[in-house]
Amino acid sequence: MKSRRHQAADQRRRKLLAMLANGERYSGEQLAKQLRVTRSAVWKLIRNLRDLGIDVEAVAHQGYQLPRPVQLYDEQAIKAAISEATRTALDRVDVLLTVDSTNRFLIDTAGAAPNHASVCVAEVQTAGRGRRGRSWFAPFGSGVCLSVEWQFEESPPNFSALSLVVGIAIIRTLQRLGCGQAQLKWPNDIVCKNRKLAGILIDMRGEASGPARVIIGIGLNLHMPPEARIKLAEQQAVLITDLHDVSEGRPPERNILVGAIVEELIAALRRFGRAGFADFEAEWQNYDALRNAPVRVLSASDTILGIARGVAQDGALLVDVDGQLQRFMSGDVSLRPA
Asked: Is 193 among the residues known to form the active site?
């Protein structure tokens, strides 16, 4: 529990960030007047934001500004982008300035009611996780760091295919918002022209039969600066894209994007809870970026070359290896020259 002093400092940081979010330049005197603090206190707050990884530029004798405007997360704006019928399934929406991991935050928070969701977004995530122990790197304002918790009353059929269903929900969202070029890359990436646009990480709590609690982490690139693209390419050996590129410089507003993802995801989770992956299999095939393509599958102990042949109802990747169909439940998959 934060002390009143820490809460007050956090509120001042949020207010300062809200002032700078429009990308305009403010003098130290203007900021001090608005925040009702000294100019020395403003400098300390600026330093606090920089310590969080927020790039606040300082111009001598002129003031402070962000490199570009950023739409900050807003709880009411997110809820307004969700239909009234779907909002009844929302237990809570947490909007954080900083957190180690939005997934971890929801894991440590009291669980949602059955067939209900809890949502967490954060401006800065200091220890985001990707697949296979990799870190998820997202500079401030560059994308969406979103986690959604959902409680199934009973584990759905073919529960292991859940990440594929989440991917379909994200594709539907992008299509609704005018970004219809994205595809799905098994098991949990959204790509556009073979460049990574988003990733999914799912934490599960439950047993094979009975109630199941899932925390779904979604990292989606919105407007990634060049230096971040280089860092990600070096860390993960993949090229990335973002919605700014995909939408030709007109990406959807961030709060609308989050609300639309939550809307589609809740609808998909309800459907998945009733029927499992069978209701989604044909749709997955339509979006499959690897279908009938030559692929390389890297497992913990081997490298397999073959032709991707879609997915099974339990979410396994099917690969034709020298005329025999092999199943893979995990591994890194990449396209290879024909």
From this structure: no
